[in-house]
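Repro:
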Amino acid sequence: MQPMQILVLGPEGSGRSALEETLTRLGYVVMAAEARRERTPPASGDIVIADLRGDEADWRELADGLAADARPMMIISERPRRIVRALSGRPAGTMLMTGAESDAGYRVALSVCQALRRSALARAAERPHNGMAAKVAAL
């Protein structure tokens, strides 16, 4: 089985770098991208992690694309933000973390995200003619 691929979105800096290092150390393939004023997140990765720590990134334009994204998502935020509430009801699943978690905390959270991903792919395989299911299967 190939390692799970994680797309980390967020401003470049020490926080995102530390997160990338942690995920890599835990055995995941990590791809990182800036949160930019785009409507859709990059298509790479099995799981999306949005690193909302800091105020450098503008998430307003990307929020709709993230809400519609068919991949499980983990949000890392040390304080309440509007985008967290906006993304909390995503059908693909959203998990909220503070960024102060231990390796074990990340392992548990990513195991849940991986199970959500597998479940979505299994459902998509059962109904390939459904447009949304086909989109999930293509990811």
